[in-house]
C-alpha cells in the first residue's frame, strides 16, 4: 500500500480518537427486568417512586458505615485511639448508619429483604443492605413500561428481584426529559434536568392549578415554556403558544411545593426551596447529555491527597467524614436555602473555609460554597487516609486544610 495513503489513514484514525464519542445514549431512562414472587418477569423502562426515571437519578438510602464495620473486624476488642504528633491513628468506632445517595446507573440489582430493607448490588460487585425513604413499602410507585404489556405497577411486597440493564429499543410513550434553566431570587442560575415539586420529570407529566375562580387546569409540561413565581401562592405560566395564565391552589404552584431540583453532571442534584425560586425556562432537550447505563462504573475507591493546617500531606485511600469511601457517594450541604448533593466522582477539591463550611471545586472548575452538613463543617467525623504502607491516619476537622481527589 502507498506509504502516503497509509499515513493519511493513520492520521484520520488518530484524530478520530481525539474527538469525544457522540453515540446516542438512547432515552437515558432506567431499564431492567422485574421478577415477581410469583415467578413472572416484566422487562422495560422503570419509573421509581414517581420521580426517579433516569440513570443519573438518585436513590435516597441509609447505609451502614462500611469503614466502621471493616475496622471493627480487623481490630482487637478494647483497643483505643493512639496519637502520632497530634494526629490520631487507629481506633474503635461504634457501629452506625448514615444517609446516603446512589445513582441508579451504578446499580446491578435490588432484592427486597423486608418491608423496609433491600440488598443492593453495584456493578463493582459491592453489596449493601440498605434502608431509606426510597426503599420498602413507603415507595409510592414502582412501575415498568413493559415492551409487551404496557405500563404495569408493582407493590414492594410483589417484587422478588430487579435486574438493571441497557435498554433494548426505545420507549414509544412520547415522553422526553424536562430540561431547562432555573433562576433563583438572588440571580443564581442552574442549567440541567428539571424535577418539579420532587415529582414531575417528563414532558408528559402534568402541572395542575386553578386559573382564577373559573376552572381547574391540568397542563402537560411539553406545553409550558416558562414557570415564574409570582407570590407565595401563585405562578405565572407562559405556554409555548405564547398564552399567559396565573395559576394557584395546588402544591404544584404555591408554597406547599416540595422543591424544584436541577440535576447536572457537574453539580449533581441542586434543590431549590419555593421561597428562593424565581423562574424556570424550559429548553430543548440536549440528547448528547442523556447518560446510558454503560456511563456508570459502579464506583471506585476514593483516592487523593489530604493537607493539614500545619503543612503536612498524606496520600492514599480516603474515607471522608469517617463514612464515604467510594466515588459513587455524595457530599451534602446547603447555602442560602439551596441544597447540594454532589457526587464525589465529580469533585476536584474540598477546602475548609471556616468551622462552618467549605468551598467545593468541581472537576469542571465551578466553585460552590457549602455549609450545614457534617460533610463540610466542624461536625465532620474525621478525614481518614489509608496510606500505601498500611497506616491509617485520621485528621480532625480543626487540623484539616484541603483535600484533592484523583
Task: Spell out the blueprint of helices and strands.
Blueprint: H1 3-18, E1 31-36, E2 41-48, E3 58-64, H2 66-74, E4 82-84, E5 87-89, E6 97-103, E7 107-112, E8 118-122, E9 127-131, E10 142-146, E11 150-154, E12 159-164, E13 179-184, E14 189-195, E15 206-211, E16 215-220, E17 224-231, E18 234-239, E19 244-248, E20 260-264, E21 268-272, E22 277-282, E23 303-308, E24 313-319, E25 330-335, E26 338-343, E27 347-354, E28 357-362, E29 367-371, E30 383-386, E31 392-395, E32 400-405
Antiparallel strand pairs: 1-2, 1-12, 2-10, 3-6, 3-9, 4-5, 5-31, 7-8, 7-12, 8-9, 10-11, 13-14, 13-22, 14-20, 15-16, 17-18, 17-22, 18-19, 20-21, 21-26, 23-24, 23-32, 24-30, 25-26, 27-28, 27-32, 28-29, 30-31
Provide a descriptive summary of the structure in words.
With 406 residues, the protein is mainly β. The chain folds into three domains: 31-164, no CATH class; 179-288, no CATH class; 300-405, no CATH class. The chain is built from two helices and 32 strands. A ten-stranded antiparallel β-sheet has the order 6-3-9-8-7-12-1-2-10-11, with no helix packed on it. Strand 17 (224-231) and strand 18 (234-239) form a beta hairpin. The longest helix has 16 residues, at 3-18. The protein is globular and about 70 Å long. The model is unreliable at 1-24 and 68-95 (pLDDT under 50).
> Which ranges are low-confidence, i.e. pLDDT below 50, for 5 or more consecutive residues?
1-24, 68-95
Which of globular, elongated, flat, extended, rod-shaped describes the shape? Answer: globular
Termini gap: 44 Å
**From the structure provided, what is the oligomeric state, counting identical versus distinct chains?**
single chain
Rg calc? 24 Å
Q: What is the count of structural domains? A: 3
Decide which structural class fits the backbone: mainly beta
Percent helix, as a range, is under 10%
With strands numbered from the N-terminus, the spatial order across the biggest sheet is 6-3-9-8-7-12-1-2-10-11
Average residue pLDDT = 87
Strand content: over 45%
Total E-strand runs = 32
Number of helices: 2
Report on the biggest sheet: 10 strands, antiparallel
Amino acid at each position: 500500500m502507498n506509504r502516503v495513503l497509509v499515513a493519511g489513514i493513520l492520521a484520520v484514525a488518530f484524530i478520530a480518537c481525539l474527538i469525544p464519542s457522540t453515540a446516542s445514549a438512547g432515552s437515558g431512562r432506567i431499564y431492567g427486568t422485574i421478577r415477581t414472587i410469583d415467578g413472572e418477569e416484566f422487562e422495560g423502562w422503570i419509573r421509581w417512586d414517581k420521580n426517579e426515571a433516569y440513570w443519573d437519578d438518585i436513590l435516597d438510602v441509609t447505609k451502614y458505615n462500611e469503614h466502621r464495620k471493616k475496622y471493627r473486624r480487623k481490630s482487637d476488642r478494647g483497643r483505643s485511639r493512639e496519637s502520632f504528633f497530634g494526629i490520631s491513628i487507629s481506633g474503635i468506632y461504634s457501629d452506625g448508619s448514615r444517609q446516603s445517595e446512589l445513582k441508579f446507573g451504578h446499580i446491578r440489582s435490588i432484592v427486597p429483604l423486608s418491608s423496609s430493607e433491600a440488598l443492593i448490588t453495584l456493578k463493582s460487585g459491592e453489596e449493601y443492605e440498605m434502608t431509606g425513604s426510597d426503599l420498602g413499602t413507603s415507595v409510592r410507585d414502582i412501575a415498568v413500561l413493559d415492551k409487551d404489556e404496557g405500563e404495569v405497577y408493582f407493590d414492594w411486597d410483589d417484587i422478588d428481584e430487579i435486574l438493571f440493564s441497557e435498554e433494548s429499543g426505545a420507549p414509544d410513550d412520547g415522553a422526553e426529559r424536562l430540561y431547562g434553566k432555573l433562576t433563583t431570587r438572588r440571580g443564581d442560575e442552574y442549567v440541567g434536568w428539571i424535577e418539579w415539586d420532587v415529582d414531575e420529570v417528563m414532558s408528559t407529566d402534568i402541572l395542575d392549578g386553578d386559573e382564577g375562580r373559573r376552572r381547574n387546569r391540568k397542563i402537560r409540561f411539553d406545553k409550558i415554556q416558562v414557570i415564574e413565581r409570582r407570590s407565595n401562592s401563585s405562578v405565572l405560566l407562559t405556554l409555548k403558544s405564547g398564552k399567559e395564565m396565573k395559576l394557584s391552589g395546588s402544591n404544584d404552584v404555591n408554597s406547599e411545593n416540595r422543591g424544584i431540583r436541577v440535576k447536572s453532571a457537574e453539580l449533581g442534584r441542586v434543590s431549590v426551596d419555593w421561597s428562593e425560586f424565581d423562574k424556570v425556562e424550559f429548553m430543548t432537550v440536549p440528547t448528547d447529555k442523556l447518560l446510558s447505563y454503560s456511563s456508570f462504573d459502579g464506583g471506585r475507591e476514593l483516592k487523593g491527597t489530604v493537607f493539614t493546617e500545619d503543612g503536612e500531606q498524606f496520600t492514599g485511600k480516603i474515607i471522608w467524614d469517617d463514612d464515604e469511601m467510594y466515588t459513587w457517594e455524595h457530599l451534602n450541604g446547603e447555602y442560602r436555602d439551596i441544597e447540594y448533593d454532589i457526587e464525589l466522582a465529580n469533585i476536584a477539591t474540598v477546602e475548609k473555609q471556616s468551622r462552618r463550611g467549605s468551598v467545593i471545586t468541581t472537576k469542571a472548575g465551578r466553585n460552590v460554597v457549602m455549609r450545614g452538613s457534617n460533610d463540610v463543617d466542624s461536625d465532620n467525623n474525621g478525614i481518614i487516609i489509608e496510606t500505601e504502607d498500611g497506616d491509617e491516619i485520621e485528621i480532625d476537622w480543626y487540623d484539616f486544610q484541603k483535600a484533592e481527589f484523583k
